[in-house]
Amino acid sequence: MFIYGFPYILFEIVFSRDVLRVLTDEIITVPLFPILLSWHLGFSFPIKYFSRFALYIHHPTFLFYYLRSVFKYITHTFYQTFLNAEQESTGYILANGKRFDRKLLIVCLFTAVCLTLIHYFQETSFAFEFLRNIGADRIADRLEERLHHSVHAQLWRLAWWAGLIVFFYLLVPIAVIRFVFKEKLSEYGLRLRGAFKDIRIYILMLAVMIPLVLFFSGTKSFQARYPFYELKPGESLIPDFIIWEGLYFLQFFSLEFFFRGFLLHGLKNRFGFYSIFVMTIPYCMIHFGKPLPETLAAIIAGIVLGILSLKSRSVFLGVLIHYSVAITMDLCALWQKGFWNH
Q1: What is the per-residue pLDDT across 270-302, written as a single tens digit (0 to 9) for each?
Q2: CA 88 to CA 116: how far, in whole Å?
């Protein structure tokens, strides 16, 4: 197959003035995973990019140029985001450096309070005791019945946890932004415009993460943790597991807004590009107790997703990346446990 494509690409190289664009910039538009997959299977893989450029990859040279262009794109994105963030931060500090930063204080305090309350109230025993201490015995009894003794108790417990996440990670920050800061939510990452401009990074991250998930899904620590909703022998995915995956998505949306929206964009005026690393610290810490590879990966993910949010001023691509990996983890865990063999 490459023999037929080679004269055409040779023609492009000889007669085109933009040789580097042919060999690098246009190749970045092709997802890495299908190319590597086709390469592994021994297939020739066509590359087409809305133009006369057509190439069949069947030689390591072209894969080298592809990977080099990927690295070039990532470093350019990193550096450009760094410059823009630092420029905006410098301007803000020059204009407001001597003033007390009320917004920074509020963002930090609410972040600490929300993380603390989630940590304690996700323990249902603490929640029941708290409700009884304030005289809400009837509510505590009903809640305990639903969460521990009903037919769908497991789903109710997960819904309780997801509800806490949505309340403290999404609703509370929205209330602070709208009624305390009196600012637009779009300034904190809730905007669709330009959200998927860097969709190529989404494809690249999936190409990297899916093989890793497949590998680690065979470990005992992974299978003991995922999926959060534990299917009983013979239980169908419908309806409880599907309902849980919907709640799982809301949880990830709230989480991304809290860390890559409210916290990151609330700190960027003062800390600039380095607000990404400040945000990554508590983000990593909420993964304590999970398998070690996942907790370490959270550091890298926090930085990458932070860069994407700072660049696009949107959290939606982060939500897409995060949930895609999470649902892949759940499906792989079910596969490793033999669920799909039933």
Answers
A1: 999 999 999 999 999 999 998 898 899 999 999
A2: 31
**pTM of the complete model beyond 0.70:** yes
User: Is-contact 163 117, C-beta < 8 A?
Assistant: no
